[in-house]
Amino acid sequence: MTAPAGGHAASVIFGLSPLWVATALFIVTYVVIMADKLNRAIVALLGAGLLIITGVMNQEEAMGAVDWNTLGLLLGMMLIVNVTRRSGLFQYVAIWSAKKVDARPWGIMIMMSTVTAVFSAFLDNVTTVLLTVPVTLLITDELQVKPYPYLFAQIFASNIGGTATLIGDPPNIMIGSATGLTFNDFAIHLTPIIIVVFVATMIPLYYVWGRHLRATEENRRHVMSFNENEAITDPRLLKQSLAVIVLVIAGFMLQRQTGIEPATTAIFGAAILLLLDNLGKDSETQSKNVHGALSEAEWITLMFFLGLFILVFGIQKAGLINLLADALLKATGGDFNVTALAILWASAILSAFIDNIPFVATMIPLIKAMGPSLGGDAALLPIWWALSLGACLGGNGTLIGASANLVVAGLAERAGTTFRFVEFMKVAFPLMLLSIILAHAYIQLRYL
Amino acid sequence: MSSNAIYQTDFPRLTETQTVGIALEQMLGNRISDLPVVDASGALLGMFKLEKLYAKLLPRAALLGKGLHDLSFVSDTLEELRGRMHAIEGDLVRDYVDKVDEVVHPDTPPVEIVLLLHNGANNVPVVERDSGRLVGMVSSRDLLATLHGGAGK
Known about the structure:
- Chain A is mainly α and 448 residues long.
- Chain A has a domain of 226 residues.
- Chain A contains 23 helices and no strands.
- In chain A, α4 packs across α16 and α6 runs antiparallel to α7.
- Chain A is globular and about 75 Å long.
- Chain B has a single domain, classed as CBS-domain (Roll), CATH 3.10.580.10.
- In chain B, 32% of the residues lie in helices and 17% in strands.
- Chain B is globular.
- Chain B starts with 13 loop residues before the first strand and ends with a helix.
- Classes of the chains: A mainly alpha (448), B alpha+beta (153).
- At the A-B interface, α7 and α12 of A face loops of B.
């Protein structure tokens, strides 16, 4: 039952209601994704394929539903990181920061968390923790201190830091792409509260763990003997990578002036970096380098997004999003302030337990559908910030709240440190609530 | 020609209750990097590999896959590494046994063995199909000697 490209949507299979078919497929797909028994990319692509096969939409509509700006931005940044990591830059910064505090245990926790937060603001959170956690484990090994508090702090730092910018966390990329909000908009509106949340998070962590951390002089000397300059394995690539990263971020910041979308900036930056990295090299080395950068991209994430955009378009086209928007408006009485704060809290609590990417993918058209009743698109700004803050910071609430949490737990497990769901949640959930209280106050005071 | 023209039947082997120190002496004495580990009946339990021993000398963070590909910034000295090696010499072999992914049988065609060694295997155990009993070991060196010499073992 395929429709030719450019053709009309085929009729829905067995004459069923498109609303029911799309809703059923959407719910089943989301439930299977949440159950985490099947790879989420497989599930999302199957769900998307079924929407086309059952005739809810045709292929042309499905392709049109995909937000290529989000996918391009993600892919471009992944490629830039994959090339840059070979230079040793990230290890250099992590070791340098640990030495800057004379390898004092609490100082290292602050520095590693800060480095993680800053990297996460500009890179994907999972990539950031993959780059920084091994260095943390190495340092805690040398200091002979428990790695758990450091890794816990890094999980928080990565999710908090990722909230600060357009490119830091996938929900922000989706929100930015769907609304036209730029890198600067995110930086101006979210970075200030994120700095406050980060500092406010570190204070309880000091009282819970930081003040008890001790290391002997000899072990600290061991860490101080690390030579961070040796971590730079390719100085030429380092300079090229830094130059491209600066240019790409400048490109994001000048989006409004240049009219160039973030995906173009990121992909073009990645292409330039690959060019610089391969200039003058033989064809075999070029193939190896390019293949390495491409194969290390998170294709599962990219394919998951692709399927998800089609799934959400399915319920949007079938009319479910409008029904949900009406129901939400009724529940909040159409009150703008109540709606914004309800979205903040609901996003946070839900994102602590379910994947925030499908949640945000669904909320975006829902909020857009409520736009006319809430004062139009221009008035929606606080609601977008509420969604971003709730969905990104909410991921800190439990061990399964964000991909970075599970990646850190997995790395820790392999290094002999176990993260348990309840033990993590006992400290993490109240800290997450603290961050949402601060976000609530920020939105209330600044926008409502 | 089957693999019995290639493999060694007189080869060193370990039991689970021997120590790492004894395993190291066997390795050095026989100039070999992997040793098979067998149970009382002679059935293959796995391999004792030098790479697993080296892993014990490294920071755990270097063994996580992605992340630390380079340790040149760490200033551990030869003495410190030697100290770590001495510290594990009293451990039992059973803590270091690796499951074997690739084994061959006495009737395995030689070209299959060439493929295994080409794909990176160093020392491949030869086990009886039914009993799982270890009857030989085949290494790159054995294969080369057979092929280069032309007259078999």
